[in-house]
Design goal:
The structure is a single chain. This protein folds into 2 domains: 23-139 and 277-354, Rossmann fold; 142-270, Rossmann fold (3-Layer(aba) Sandwich). Helix content is 40%, strand content 23%. It is globular and about 65 Å long. By secondary structure, it is of the alpha/beta class. The chain starts with a helix and ends in an 11-residue tail after the last strand. The strands form 2 sheets. Strands 7, 8, 9, 10, 11, 12, 13, 14 and 15 form a 9-stranded mixed sheet that branches. Helix 12 crosses helix 13 (324-333). Helix 9 links the parallel strand 9 (216-219) and strand 10. The structure holds P-hydroxybenzoic acid. Residues 96-98, 119-121, 169, 222, 249 line the site of P-hydroxybenzoic acid.
Length: 391
């Protein structure tokens, strides 16, 4: 004991086994801008998953370092670099917007730091521009809407108008829907793309949708844009003449409290709803609600499952993080029954294989609007889409 106390601090540090060093997880997420609430929920839920593991694996503490992307691709790129080169993170988790993910792709691939994506759906990141270091727990944009095209056509929607924000995710989600809807026999009668993050008045778009007289509008918005769009569509009484459908983040439980009754009737695809009846989801919702005093949405489920994936992979490597290939290969071995149901990572693309749920926003007896599952499309898996893994 005597000898240890006289050791200089640096020598003491060097004497510690490498195992004792923290495992740093860089949360590269929007904490401001259009998608700020999404970044917060993902982080909260990931922290819960780490807490369940005692905030450590093999004696190494799990630490989250937050970096605000501001929902801006150039800021995301700068922050990713900072997390890797200054903070020396072992993992990156994020971002939310497809455009942010595209902006950090090359840096992540070159730096070989595993990026776990709970949300950003840019198709090419698990297709032509895939990387062994980019693992997608969320979804690809195409995977999310592909099942909805045929499903809605089969349910009687024969013509649709497309409406989304004008950036990668909006374009890809509409493109994916269009492909499967028209292949089934559906007709697209118009499409509009609103300036991303700059549109708060959806009036002109609502008027165009109504004038085109489609059976349905297929729409995607998230964050503050989703709240504004749904409220304005209700004020405009669009649902009287046009069925409102789409990528159901538009009525996410994260935005429903602000949207209220205006969201009722929305029909669309989603990979999670709070009402899913499985033990992992019940436990997750109980913990999240106790801690944060609100229901967790699909963004929370994905943040939690991203955290679980990291913990499960680290258990397999006994907490070792240096050999990045071993960490990623451990992720491939994890088969999880998470809150959203079964999920696993397809090693051919690093995209998640998961159920897609057709959901409806319904007003309950208490006047509250919740999402109900009306159909399940099981184990939806993307094609390889030009992905070649270059380690
Ligand atoms: C995306 O930009 O990929 C994105 C953002 C928010 C969502 C879904 C997709 O809710």
């Amino acid at each position: 004991m005597k000898i240890r106390t006289v050791l200089p601090a640096l020598a003491l540090l060097a004497a510690l086994p490498a195992q004792a060093q923290d495992i740093k997880v860089g949360a590269i997420l929007p904490y401001s801008g259009v998608y700020a609430s999404i970044g917060e929920e993902i982080t909260n839920a990931m922290a819960l998953a780490f807490e369940e593991a005692g905030n450590a694996v093999n004696g190494r503490a799990l630490k989250i370092i937050r970096a605000d992307t501001e929902t801006k691709p150039n800021v995301a790129a700068a922050k990713a670099r900072e997390l890797v080169t200054s903070d020396n993170v072992d993992f990156l988790v994020g971002p939310v917007a497809s455009s942010e993910a595209m902006a950090i792709r090359d840096f992540v691939h070159q730096s070989k730091i595993p990026l776990v994506m709970p949300n950003a759906g840019a198709n090419v990141l698990t297709g032509e521009k895939c990387s062994p270091y980019i693992v997608r727990v969320g979804f690809s944009n195409d995977q999310f809407v592909r099942p909805a095209g045929k499903w809605l056509f089969d349910k009687g929607v024969k013509s649709a108008f497309l409406l989304a924000p004008d950036y990668a995710a909006g374009r890809e989600l509409m493109g994916g829907f269009k492909k499967s809807f028209t292949a089934a026999g559906g007709k697209i009668v118009g499409e509009e793309y609103s300036p991303f993050g700059q549109t708060s008045d959806f009036g002109p778009y609502l008027a165009k949708v109504k004038d085109a007289k489609p059976d349905a509008v297929f729409v995607f918005y998230a964050g503050s844009e989703a709240i504004n769009f749904i409220k304005q569509a209700a004020d405009f009484q669009l649902a009287k003449s046009v069925k409102i459908t789409g990528a159901a983040w538009t009525v996410s439980p994260l935005f429903l409290p602000a949207q209220g009754e205006a969201a009722a009737g929305f029909l669309g695809s989603l990979n999670y709803v709070p009402a899913l009846d499985n033990p992992a989801n019940k436990a997750f919702q109980a913990k999240y609600q106790e801690r944060h005093k609100r229901v967790a949405s699909e963004f929370g489920a994905a943040g939690y499952e991203s955290g679980r994936l990291i913990v499960e992979a680290l258990k397999r490597t006994q907490g070792a993080t240096k050999d990045k290939k071993a960490v990623i290969e451990a992720m491939h071995k994890v088969e999880m029954n998470g809150p959203r149901g079964p999920l696993k990572i397809d090693p051919a693309t690093n995209n998640v294989i998961q159920n897609i749920y057709m959901v409806e926003a319904r007003k309950g007896a208490d006047g509250k609007v919740d999402l109900a599952v009306v159909d399940t499309i099981a184990n939806v898996k993307d094609d390889v889409n030009g992905c070649a893994m270059n380690w």
